[in-house]
Specification:
44% of the residues lie in helices and 10% in strands. It is of the alpha+beta class. It has a five-stranded antiparallel beta sheet with strand order 6-5-9-8-7, sandwiched between helices. Strands 1-2 form a two-stranded antiparallel sheet.
Length: 551
């Protein structure tokens, strides 16, 4: 018998499928698509909504959608290890303000060859500023701020690269978790462990009688070892007193005046075995030290300005390719150079600004440096001095002062008082041991005030106490009318130089804040000095150097 339920009544075609069956097929198809797509990306925003700073970039809907497509392409390339393609796509998406692209650029930066940790820190900070939750958590953990105990656990927005960036930034997992509950304190009236240090050897005393030694022996029971003891005590005070008295008595009991004790060998020390030449070598050796951040930023900025000066307009991408710096570092430096009027940017093309044009003319170098010092004087409201160590002498090249920023009252020439003035100390700190001793041999330290240091050993210890490139102070050592602070401006290939700031003695409370402001402004001053002391500009080349990490 034929089953006619599969055909309709009119033409014998297939009967319509029921709506319930279609719903099941749609659900199964959606599940298969979700399984193939994997975990949804939190920052995959096809609609172009990139967070709180979206409107700041003033991009249209089409441009934001295009940036999100570049984010997806760059993420896939980063997952496959194709760093060059990922840098191009994620970089363009980051320029449109995509937080996910900024965060994953940090992962790309940490994978590249070279020391780009500062760029990774900058990218994570920018991602947090654009609303990336994972970046904000890492910044808080790096600053040793733990999340609150209350509230739900935060969601990881980028599980694919979160741990990789956390390890690259050296953030421990412990700092990402809320602090534990307050520890339960032990009962103050119960037994507890008390740390009993080993007794120190006292100075020799006259011998004591045997009876006193016998009385001290029970107190010394358990203290025959040379190391510290940990004893469970209910009230440690009597025991500590007895132990201290017993140790002193035992030391006095072992002291004799016999001829045998007088013939004992002295205490052995390693200092007697070290030849004097090793001590001289240790003093003369210059310990390697990382250059300060201001010096690194000034040198990189100078390299950028050289390329901008020799090219008839250049884009950021070409600067990245020619200098070998990362996109982030190049963009940050260009932003700072524009604020300082070194560079002008029109339609994405960078050209020399008025300050760079002035620095390119040799006859304007002294005027440019003087204008820089005058601006620094007005900013700090203090007198400033630019000094160098040239041919073995301390020279004040330029200075700036005014009625509200009075100069230092010169009681003795700066050239012969390097041991007392702040600028002299900063210059001596950049010299090695032999050069320092040679200078002090020619200009013998003399007391100018009651606080002047004339002992070379104490002077060198004070110069090196806080490490290389540290600020040097003159606290009423050169004159009782002024206090000063100085920073080093020395870079490889140039004369030893420094910048000093001077305040009247009655304004000594401003010295620390003024020195901090001088440190922050030293990058622009150092860059101006590099440009004004350069003898030649490099010629433009058609072949760009090979990039270190990013294309």
């Amino acid at each position: 018998m034929t089953d006619v339920s599969r055909f309709d009544r009119d033409g014998g075609g297939p009967a319509p499928v029921c709506e319930a069956k279609l719903g099941q097929l749609r659900e199964q198809l959606a599940a298969v698509r979700a399984e193939l797509a994997g975990v949804p990306d939190f920052w995959d925003r096809p609609e172009g909504d990139f967070g709180p700073l979206t409107d700041l970039y003033r991009l249209g809907q089409t441009e934001r959608e295009h940036a999100n497509s570049l984010f997806r392409l760059g993420s896939r390339a980063l997952g496959r290890g194709e760093l060059a393609a990922a840098a191009d796509w994620l970089g363009e998406a980051a320029q449109a303000g995509h937080p996910g692209a900024l965060f994953r650029l940090a992962a790309l930066t940490l994978r590249t060859i070279g020391n780009w940790s500062e760029d990774a820190d900058f990218l994570v900070a920018e991602a947090a500023r654009h609303g990336h939750g994972d970046a904000g958590r890492l910044l808080s953990a790096a600053a040793r701020r733990r999340p609150a105990r209350s509230g739900p656990a935060p969601r990881i927005e980028d599980p694919q690269f979160f741990d990789e960036i956390r390890r690259g930034l050296r953030v421990s997992e412990e700092m990402l978790l809320p602090a534990q509950a307050d520890p339960v304190l032990p009962d103050p009236h119960g037994p507890r462990l008390v740390f009993v240090p080993a007794p120190a050897i006292p100075s020799p005393q006259p011998p004591v009688s045997a009876s006193e030694s016998a009385r001290a022996r029970p107190a010394l029971h358990g203290m025959q070892s040379s190391g510290p003891l940990i004893v469970a005590l209910t009230d440690p005070t009597p025991y500590l007193a007895a132990a201290a008295a017993g140790a002193a008595a035992a030391a006095r009991a072992t002291t004799t005046t016999s001829t045998e004790d007088e013939n004992l060998e002295p205490v052995w020390t390693a200092n007697a075995l070290r030849p004097a030449i090793l001590t001289d070598m240790a003093r003369s050796r210059v310990l390697p030290a990382h250059p300060p951040a201001q010096q690194t930023a000034a040198i990189r900025s100078r390299d950028l300005l050289h390329h901008i000066q020799t090219a008839a307009g250049i884009t950021t991408r070409d600067l990245v390719r020619r200098t070998g710096m990362s996109v982030t570092t190049t963009s940050w430096l260009l932003h700072w150079l524009r604020a300082q009027f070194f560079v002008e940017t029109v339609a994405g093309v960078h050209r020399p600004g008025p300050v760079l044009e002035m620095a390119s003319r040799t006859d304007q170098h002294e005027l440019l440096m003087q204008q820089t010092l005058d601006a620094l004087r007005d900013h700090l409201d203090a007198a400033v001095y630019l000094s160098t160590y040239t041919s073995g002498d301390i020279l004040i090249h330029q200075s700036s002062h005014s009625a509200t920023a009075p100069p230092v009252r010169v009681g003795a020439p700066f050239s012969i008082t390097g041991h007392a003035s702040a600028c002299g100390k900063a210059l001596l700190a950049d010299l090695d041991f032999d050069a320092r001793m040679e200078h002090l041999a020619r200009y013998e330290p003399v007391s100018l005030t009651a606080r002047t240091i004339t002992n070379p050993r104490i002077l060198f210890d004070n110069l090196d106490r806080h490490g290389p490139h540290a600020v040097q102070f003159d606290l009423l050592e050169y004159s009782e009318q002024n206090v000063c602070a100085a920073f080093s401006l020395t870079v490889p290939g140039h004369d030893t130089a420094c910048i000093a700031v001077a305040l009247p003695a009655d304004q000594h409370h401003r010295l620390i804040d003024t020195a901090a402001a001088l440190s922050r402004a030293s990058t622009g001053l150092l860059l101006t000095r590099l440009l004004t002391t350069a003898t030649t500009w490099p010629t433009d080349t058609t072949e760009a150097p090979r990039a270190i990490a990013l294309p």
